[in-house]
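Entry 12.
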Amino acid sequence: MAVVLWSTAAAASDKPPLAPDAVAPFTTESRISAAVEFGLPALASKIEQSIPRRLATIDERVACVNRRVIGFRVQANCDVDGYVERSGRVSIYGRDGRVYGSVPIYGALEAQGANRFTSRIRGETEASATVEAEARPRLTKDWALALNFSDRFSWSEPPVMRVLGREISLTKYAEPRIRSQLAKIRSRANAAARSLDLKGKAAAAWRHAFDPIALSDTPPVWLQLTPQAVSFAGVSADSKVLRGSLELRGSAMTTVGQQPPAVEAAPLPPLGNEVSAPGELDVILPVRIGYDVLKQKLSDILAATPIAGLAVRDLDIYPSSGKLIIGLRLDKPSDEPATENWVYVSAGVVVAADGQSVALSDLAVITPNDQLALLITNLQDKARIDFGPAYQNLLKAANDKLNRPLQNGFRLEGHLASAKLEKLYLPADGVVVAMRATGRLRILYGM
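Predicted 3D structure (tokens):
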């Protein structure tokens, strides 16, 4: 504690002038995320609509008999007719950042001798298979979502037809047609992914990021984001959803009072380089402690610890050039003229070690008075204002406001957690403790 007794004579000029701090809007640099999520079942349904029920029709003439009978070589052809169809629904799911798809297929084939001498030669078979596809989704520089499926299929039992004791494999007749159809399916799957319009959704999220966000109603606190750049933060998938994430980088400005004017949204900038993960949101949450609250606290201390021969009739508190000025109007002895008897003490205001309260520091007497030493000791030791509940209420209000629906299927989801002291101000209406809160903020679609 530092107590300084000034030796100059008391006069009206001893009163420090009112000089509050100017508090500009609080601005930080932040990175927030915009995530667009699409249900994989819906994507599967869209892809399924583009897959015909019948994948292949088989109409082939094959050599079905080639054997020696009573010393003669007998050869005969058979007409093979059949089909391969999709026998179930398309299934798409995600795992470990990849997208997997599958669809069951079924084939039935029949062979019959190709002329009247061989018409009694018959054979038939059926087989089932599963077509499997795998893709690592990515976002191209032109905002197109590419799946680039690689596919394969495996027969549960290959289609083999038995004619007069001979086995005829039909895979070489069925598979080329199936593979030709799968190439079309791959193209249609990528077209379905592109139709999700990730760029359009990203542009809408970009526009929403410019809208002022009310963090608190009492006092009115507003968050104004001004994005400047956007980067790709990956496409991921889990069992049910395909999710594309972006990182929006820019400034986050906090203001107290009236709603700030809307910032006109700039055009969506070109997509930047890929980043590993969307970053964190940093905002300044200002907690105000009115001078009336501080005045009442000091009055209570003076009333609880009276000092013999020193009576304080009135109290005044105001800021002056970064210091808090405490004006004390003292009772005068009855034999002195009835004039104002004010003494002034300057003090610093600091956030206490607990991070939840403010205290007075470096008290110094501006007007000479030998009786003030004990009073100053009491004030410095006991004048502590707890702002923890006010900050927690502001934090809760901000977190409530950061979770709400937006227009056109978008939603805001945020959470502020850790906080540390940024700066302390002494404006005209009270002490302002600016706390830097760190958390996350996402603009979501379809989630």
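Annotation: The CA atoms of residues 200 and 429 lie 46 Å apart. The radius of gyration is 40 Å.
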